[in-house]
Design goal:
Blueprint lengths: L12 E2 L2 H4 L4 H16 L1 H24 L6 E4 L2 H11 L7 E5 L4 H14 L2 E5 L8 H11 L4 E7 L11 H10 L3 E5 L11 H4 L3 E5 L11 E5 L26 H7 L7 H4 L1 H9 L5 H24 L13 E5 L15 H10 L1 E2 L2 E6 L2 E7 L6 H11 L1
Parallel strand pairs: 1-10, 3-4, 3-5, 5-6, 6-7
Antiparallel strand pairs: 2-8, 7-8, 9-12, 11-12
Helix pairs in contact: 2-3, 4-5, 6-7, 12-14
Bound molecules: pyridoxal-5'-phosphate.
Amino acid sequence: MNTELWLLDPQVTFLNHGSFGACPQRVLETQQRWQRILERDPVDFFLHRAEPLMHEVRETLAGVMNCAAEDLALIPNATTGINTVLRSLDLQVGDHLLGISQTYGACRSTLDWVAQRAGAQVNYAQLPWPVEDPDQIVEIILKTVTPKTRLALVDSITSPTGLVLPIRAIVDGLKARGVETLIDGAHALGMVPLHLHDLGAGYFTSNAHKWLCTPKGSAVLHVRRDLQDGIKPLNLSHGVGWSGQAYASPFRMAFDWTGTDDPTPFLCIPEALRFLSGLYEGGLEGLMNRNRSLALKARGILCDALGISAPAPDSMIASLAAVPLPAMEWTPTSPEDISPLQKRLYDEHLIQVPIFPFPSGSSPVLRVAVQAYNELRDYEYLAEKLV
Ligand SMILES: Cc1ncc(COP(=O)(O)O)c(C=O)c1O
């Protein structure tokens, strides 16, 4: 690992950027500077400076996500994005929602809860794992649509297996059947190129604190313009129902003030982008390409060590790669429970790598992440200690 520019413990082989990201020193210092500026005069900051600053951040994000800044709301995390959309829906008894077998646990709980509250039902598309062809996934998702499906929640990059799903074909196919898509892009921003305007999905949420490496508590929700009236923040505050302000839209007004909170993680987005873009030739896209090529090599090393073939086509890999592990005895008792193997890798070798009970505790996957600080030898070391 090359942790020089990061705050990561150099003793730890950190292969889990996917869970909570990691913030470079320079970006954290930027946050601390903003916190000091804010605290010099909190009233002036929140009343006069915050809104234009946040708008600049939205403009910066819009440049990366290829969409209009006006359609973006700054929110603390992807879980909030998913909850905001699902809990704004006016579901009726008998409506259907669509999820996938790899829907992130917290989002699955939300889907199930909003459906149960309304007397609706959730149909989960059972995605194959291992997977041979991304088209299989499109086909299975579209087959799960019923005439009553109101909305599909589909991941851009799946959590346990790190697969880049063919989102464009999924959104188009669902649209052709009259179904809007909420994309859980928790991992997308900073890991894969985004073209939200062209994609035309109803809703898209992503964390910045994962692959853009901003401080924790920074994420974004994109809502297509024609759907914005129906979407309200989880915290209704001054901006809801207020008219006569010089704000661009009621959507912006509602999301810009949801109660007093720390805006500094968002204010670090431009600095994080500058930092990441300066690491490799080709800027942010250069970093994405470098991470992808290392993820493919890492997966190859792990598959060789385990004596298995790659569980998904190369085209479905970006900065995460998962491999199925041999059967083990493990029955997780809570979402935070870790397998004995994960515990051994950390306790004995200081390797921080997640093992997920997917498809089950007895048949789990190990997922590695690749960020700028990782090197090939990190994965060689893991392979050596794994078997
Ligand atoms: C696919 C997916 N969705 C949502 C989340 C939730 O992200 P957060 O905890 O930042 O809200 C995660 C977190 O790992 C995730 O992997």
